[in-house]
Amino acid sequence: MRPDMRHEENDGTAVMVFRLNSIPKTVEFYPIAGMLSDGTVKAITENYKRGLERWGDRRKIANKFNNGMYATAPFSDEEATKIFEKSNFKF
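User: That's the sequence. What structure does it adopt?
Assistant: Structure tokens below.
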């Protein structure tokens, strides 16, 4: 997510967090958590959910989780909701 990207409440942009698996050589992305534009947080575990709620800002989430183990990406709220449902996020 670009640093100059501004987020306003209910702007329709969600941020999704993916866990990276680089073994074997092909990199795979597994969705683990996300925050919708209205502040709704969904995750596969309670710990991920608490972490996102603690930061409470989509820009902070995007910056904190962009490293060698995780990647983030912006999605529309509708696309993110579909990912939540498809991945059976429980929290």
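The chain has one domain: 13-86.
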